[in-house]
TrEMBL record:
Similarity comment: Belongs to the krueppel C2H2-type zinc-finger protein family.
InterPro entries per record: Znf_C2H2-type, Znf_C2H2_sf, Znf_C2H2_type
Protein keywords: DNA-binding, Metal-binding, Nucleus, Repeat, Transcription, Transcription regulation, Zinc, Zinc-finger
Record-level Gene Ontology MF annotations: DNA binding; zinc ion binding
The protein, known as: Zinc finger protein 182-like
Amino acid sequence: MKGLSTDRPFECNICQKKFSRTDTLRDHLRTHTGEKPFECAICRKSFTQSGNLRKHLRTHTGEKPFECAVCRKSFARSEHLQAHLRTHTGDKPFECDVCQKRFAQPGHWQTHLRTHTGEKSFECNVCQKKFSESGHLSRHFRIHTEEKSFECVICRKSFTQSGTLRDHLRTHTGEKPFECAVCRKSFATSGSLRDHVRTHHTDDKPFECAVCRKSFVKSEYLRKHLRTHTGDKSFECTVCKKKFAQHGHWQTHLRTHTGEKSFECNVCQKKFSERGQLSSHFRIHTDEKSFECVICRKSFTQSGTLRVHLRTHTGEKPFECAVCRKSFATSGTLRKHFRTHRGDRPFECTICRKSFTRPGNLRSHLRTHLDDD
């Protein structure tokens, strides 16, 4: 550490960070001021540094001047090539001095260090929310600008992040580059692989609720769960004003107004309004049953079906009728039961117009017409 002040004589008067060159300090100051003097002549996007503009221009030209000598893969940026080369060498030169964990990428190392310090030095100048990474701040800022500059060349859908576009493109190509080292199952995103490993191969649930101490596999599951304590419903439908606690439920509901089905099966071309529905459907083609009951070893294609099945062993009936307090093992059974209180009969015979509370009752009734024939 000796000689640091002489090696880095230029100090930021806002955060006291030190730099070895005046131009590096100048670039850094723009992270505080928000100044972006370098503008793309094609899409008018602005940048804090000329180098970032140069890199951005390659997203328009498709230029990838940096090639890997091992596998010939090309990259738009030299740092992406350097990071890629470590996938061949296995080199992890960045070590945490607190817990000795090693990293291949400096960005991953820096992000990890903040888990020890809790530092959040990047602040949004609109809502003052703070972030531990400049990339997180950039992504967050698009919430305020509603900017979606990454467009799918196949379906023209736009996204706020390049990574989200990359993941989306795999819904068209069917590519699943992330493979589980335990069971060899493949996934379209690294996050899906990480979640799979936690769910099926480890008991790791790192996200804990501070209110009830319940733990979750994913941070977004914890965020959703917290709303059960707060009662927050911040997602409102602009058509019918219905409010939702979960962003996914809100998006799904919006499609009931638009009829949009943007997730297509690449085997039979059937379309779905939700990615999860497509994933569940796809198992019809693969015959994959990856969810196994730990009690009787019966396997299922969907986690929800396994969850319902487990209740046949435990006797759990979590769905209670608000009218008569009778309990049921599934929400669907409760829904059917509730029709007996409401007098609801949505299933009508097309021959005699008689109505029924359940589709099974209608099917039985239809046989009486067949017997008459």
